[in-house]
Amino acid sequence: MDKVLVQECIEELRKITASGSIITVDSDYVRPLVKVRNPKAHKGSFGHALLYAGSLGMAGAAVLSARACLRSGVGLLTVCTPSVNNDILQISVPEAMTVSDDDMYANPVLDRYNAIGAGPGLGQGAAQAALLGRLMRAASCPMVLDADALNIISQDSSLLEAVPAGSVMTPHPGELRRLVGDTRSWTDMISHAMVMASKYGVTIVVKGAPTVTVTPTGDLFVNTTGNPGMATGGSGDVLTGITLALLAQGFDQNQAASTAVYIHGLSGDTAAARLSMTAMTSADIAASLPQVWLQFEKNTLL
Which residue in 67, 91, 153, 284 has the fewest CB atoms around it within 10 Å? Predict the structure, then answer.
């Protein structure tokens, strides 16, 4: 991320925040949050995530998000998706378990999950909205809400009251405007996000260049990684998967969101260095995650 752009962003944010802090999310911030794994750990040590994603013709979004989640350290992952997508998920992401959205609607047992993600490729039909509402109201764990989950909420604002404690929303500017209404400027959009975050206790990731994470207490986290090559379909699905994995592993909502954004951007930078910004795809961002996590394990992150 261009350093001048980041600094200009920080200067603009100082005009709209009085009580909250502005934190620069760089390697010094992220490094202490990524812990070395206990030698005695097992898959149950790293959480069980549920991902509600995909629809007819949009199985790829579920695959991208699932791959990113699994590549970000989650112990177990179950993907809730229409049965038409089951074979695609089982072949593309064999490490993930699947459950059909019909089965989940009939019996939404959620106590086994440490975090729930919803939205990538979901669609906005009545069935999707009904199941999303059931999941939100039944969940006792934090959620990551992205894409069509946010669009469904924007059509039924009563769902905002059902957002579980400790949850994260990851809207792009268009999705955020549908939630908060028209905004006059970028800083106006951030201001509206701050009001929503405080009112509902949710952390809001306002995706952009740079991405800004807005917390319920008014703190703003400004990301320093990423590049224009990440402006490609599916990039947000990868971010959802990373955030979901970190929530399931016990990161609090602010740390999960800000760290996921940094890792996502660094993976994008890694992919661009290898493939170019023009040619890289969202699948390349997910495929670059191992190189990024390896830097933490070897303590070679710059």
Answer: 91
Within-domain flag for 126 = yes
DSSP state of 214: E
Q: Which residues of 58-73 are buried (b: 16+ CB within 10 A; e: fewer)?
A: bbbbbbbbbbbbbbbb
Q: What is the DSSP string of 137-187?
A: HH--S-EEE-HHHHHHHHH-GGGGGGPPTT-EE---HHHHHHHH---SSHH
Distance (Å, rounded) from C-alpha 60 to C-alpha 82?
13
The structure's pTM equals 0.97
Do 265 and 230 touch, CB atoms closer than 8 A? yes
pLDDT digits (tens, 9 = 90+) for 19-72: 779 999 999 999 999 988 999 999 999 999 999 999 999 999 999 999 999 999
Could you tell me if residue 124 is inside a domain? yes
- Whose CA is closest to 205, among 255, 141, 140? 255
- Amino acid, res. 133: G
pLDDT digits (tens, 9 = 90+) for 130-175: 999 999 999 999 999 999 999 999 999 999 999 999 999 999 999 9
Cβ atoms within 10 A of the Cβ of 11, count? 10
Cβ contact 279:84 at 8 Å: no
How many domains is the chain built from?
A: 1
Q: What is the CATH number of the domain that holds 75?
A: 3.40.1190.20
In a domain, residue 207? The reply is: yes
The SS3 assignment for 76 reads strand
Q: Beta strands of 15-167 (E only): which ranges?
A: 22-25, 48-52, 76-81, 97-100, 115-118, 143-145
Distance CA 71, CA 94 (A): 13
Which residue segment(s) compose the domain that 47 sits in? 3-297
Task: Decide if 302 is inside a domain.
Answer: no
